[in-house]
């Protein structure tokens, strides 16, 4: 099965990022949770990014608050798809994080979802859509989930 890395800059971000882990698990997708800061541990981020593909990761979901550089830094070091989740961790309630993540320069894309828990859930669903292009079982699991949504 494909693996998704769920990365965040601080353990406190897990409150939001758990929604991505749960969305992935609901579709039978394995994820690995990693905590590393683009500002406090740039060497760790670099080492992860340059070895992520070799470790079997196919999509990276990265949550970050405030200056929110983590998703962009990750995207600068890998060509794997990166999905950025703005974390509402500052007085600006995540708007600053949204702007930081969504304003990537051309050539270094980061797919950006909504602020907070709804965005984290959508990051998991988007990762499944991406993986579903290669893995029919993942595509079916996501399609089944969408059918469940229609019933609510």
UniProtKB/TrEMBL annotation:
Keywords (A to Z) from UniProt: Isomerase, Purine biosynthesis
A GO biological process held by the record: 'de novo' IMP biosynthetic process
EC number per UniProt: 5.4.99.18
Gene Ontology MF term list: 5-(carboxyamino)imidazole ribonucleotide mutase activity
Root EC class: isomerase
Record's catalysed reaction(s): 5-carboxyamino-1-(5-phospho-D-ribosyl)imidazole + H(+) = 5-amino-1-(5-phospho-D-ribosyl)imidazole-4-carboxylate
Pathway: Purine metabolism; IMP biosynthesis via de novo pathway; 5-amino-1-(5-phospho-D-ribosyl)imidazole-4-carboxylate from 5-amino-1-(5-phospho-D-ribosyl)imidazole (N5-CAIR route): step 2/2
Coiled-coil annotated spans: none
Ranges for domain PurE: 2-152
Family stated for the protein in its record: Belongs to the AIR carboxylase family. Class I subfamily.
Job of this protein: Catalyzes the conversion of N5-carboxyaminoimidazole ribonucleotide (N5-CAIR) to 4-carboxy-5-aminoimidazole ribonucleotide (CAIR).
NCBIfam families per record: purE (TIGR01162)
Name of the molecule in the record: N5-carboxyaminoimidazole ribonucleotide mutase
Organism name: Dehalogenimonas formicexedens
């Amino acid at each position: 099965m494909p693996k998704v890395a769920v990365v965040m800059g601080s353990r406190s971000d897990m409150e939001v990022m758990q929604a991505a882990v749960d969305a992935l698990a609901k579709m039978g997708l394995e994820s690995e949770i990693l905590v590393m800061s683009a500002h406090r541990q740039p060497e760790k981020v670099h080492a992860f990014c340059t070895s992520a593909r070799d470790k079997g990761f196919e999509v990276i979901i990265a949550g970050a608050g405030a200056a929110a550089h983590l998703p962009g830094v990750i995207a600068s070091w890998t060509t794997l798809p990166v999905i950025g989740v703005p974390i509402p961790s500052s007085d600006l309630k995540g708007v600053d994080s949204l702007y930081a993540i969504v304003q990537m320069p051309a050539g270094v894309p980061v797919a950006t979802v909504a602020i907070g828990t709804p965005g984290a859930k959508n990051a998991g669903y988007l990762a499944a859509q991406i993986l579903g292009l290669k893995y029919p079982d993942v595509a079916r699991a996501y399609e089944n989930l969408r059918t469940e949504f229609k019933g609510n």
